[in-house]
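Journal club prep, notes for RB
We'll compare a predicted complex against what the paper describes. Inputs for the shikimate-3-phosphate case:
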Amino acid sequence: MGTRTIYPVKRLRGELEVPGDKSISHRAVMLGSIASGTTEIAHFLKSADCLSTIDCFRRMGISIEERHGRMLVHGKGLHGLTAPGGALSAGNSGTTARLLSGILAGQHFSSTLSGDASLNSRPMDRIITPLRLMGAEITGINGTPYAPLSMEPEQLHGITYLSPVASAQVKSAVLLAGLYADSETSVTEPALSRNHTELMLDSFGADIFTAKCSADGSITACVKPCQNLHARKICVPGDISSAAYLIAAGLLIRDSELLIKRVGVNPTRSGFLRVCRAMGADITLFNQASDGGEVYADLLVRTSRLKAAAIEGPVIPSLIDELPVLAVLAAYAEGTTVIRDAAELKVKESNRIDTVTANLRAMGADVTPTEDGMIIKGGRPLTGAQIHTCLDHRIAMAFTIAALAASGETTIHDSGCVDISYPAFFTDLENIISH
Ligand code: S3P
């Protein structure tokens, strides 16, 4: 997995594009595979997680090829997938495992879906429960709530599901299964999670709508059983979760100015920008445009003096993957930052409350873990340390940024895990370091 040594840098300068959005890339392959016709995907993220999704669909008879830098997914329609010979592997990817389960539950063949050690220890009851309510026959290994998952063919029924967690993976699994149900399916979540599935289903011609309850503010997504999805051209915006590391570096490192182009700023994903601005960040958005309902913009980032902020409530799902790097920003900011309502951090690629706390402490920060977040007393100078990523890509990248702004030498162990979402991370960083 490799080791990287990181030294402090003087300034960052330059203009770049970050790779395509991971969540949207997964969904483009999934919907492209079950649509009729060829879906052409530009700026597809070729990271380990998205390649796991491609591999699963290839194994179910879908031809996916790369031509002139674009992915072509030759969809075979809603009922065109064929039984894979043996277990499908989602690798490290929770999105592949959970969204694909929703699709597999509606198929006419049996299937088994597994992953790596990290994925097989992440909770799957959150999708097993609603899919069973829809009539699916889905079981975790030895009756546990963990993958490998096995699925048997069953007719699905529409449900009205009140999700206990604000999770796009849960919502999407249920909505995708809803395409195969015999009546309408709806999912209500406590706070709005990323809505890429809803936007993309709509753009592929599914009958889907969302509604906000005026009484409690909850959001419901509703999908009707589907006869056919139509292939389309997709241009994936840059991944704001990847851009977040570069933005954080630009804010922290003295005398920096970065222009990051075509970054997805869908409001259900851009809580990071809102919180950074509340912390005093100098970030300007311009050239805003959209593709298939997904809004993107160019971002100009300049070094800023940061102050603490409260990070809690409904903003949490819109920045859940950015919390490790926000914790790093908080450690450099003036004042005490409290992160609350983020217990979901415990069930990511690592327990991110533990991994962030341990690594921030190793660098000299004052951080206290809580049941649903962290309290970070910012403003202490950080020093280089040994960073243990626990094979979690977001920990590797967040602490590389912490190290660029710290004093001394930092070692990032198992740094190769950045391949999960941002294979060019270290190269992109090197290209903006100005000597
Ligand atoms: C994702 C949803 C989020 C996020 C993950 C990607 C998606 O997970 O953390 O990296 O693409 O739907 P949850 O749905 O579990 O919050």
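Talking point for the session: The chain has twelve helices and 24 strands.
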